[in-house]
Amino acid sequence: MSESHESPVIPQDSGRRPTGTRREFLGSAAAAAAAAAGVGSAAANDQRVGDERPRDKFQPESFWSRRMQPPEDGKRYGWFVDTRRCIGCHGCEVSCKAENDVPLGHFIRQTIYADVGEYPKVARLFLPVACQHCEDAPCIKACPCGALHKGEGGTVLVDYDRCSGHGTCVEVCPYGAIYLDPVAKQAVKCHNCVHRLEHGMQPACVPTCPAEALHFGDLNDPDSSINRAMAGAREQGETLHQLRSEKGTRPRAWYAGRAAVEIEHRVPTEGHSFGTDTYDIYRWKETDPQTDGDQRG
Question: Taking Cα atoms as reference points, which of 221, 68, 215 lies closest to residue 135?
Answer without folding.
Answer: 68
